[in-house]
Design goal:
Elements (H helix, E strand, L loop, with lengths): L19 H18 L3 H22 L23
Helix pairs in contact: 1-2
């Protein structure tokens, strides 16, 4: 397959996003804010759970990612929030 855009050069750091720990910290803050706005207690708890998971991921990233994060004890979406087919 030929290159779709011959001669197009991308900066060498284009595929590098923010450091993982910074991203996960930002996402944890966003989830905490969403928890404060949530009207339903189940939604609030889901946002709190996600914030905690993001915080743990940020801490692991800050330590060099050498510690494995434990799998979530609960599914990301509770059954009542899952999208039906």
């Amino acid at each position: 397959m030929k290159d779709a855009h011959p001669g197009l050069v991308y900066p060498s750091n284009m595929d590098q996003g923010p450091p993982d720990s910074a991203y996960f910290t930002r996402r944890a803050d966003e989830e905490r804010a969403a928890a404060e706005r949530a009207l339903d207690p189940r939604a609030r708890q889901s946002h709190i759970d996600l914030a905690e998971r993001y915080s743990r991921a940020a801490q692991a990233g800050a330590k060099g990612g050498k510690e494995a994060l434990e799998p979530a004890a609960m599914p990301l979406l509770q059954p009542e929030f899952q999208i039906l087919p």
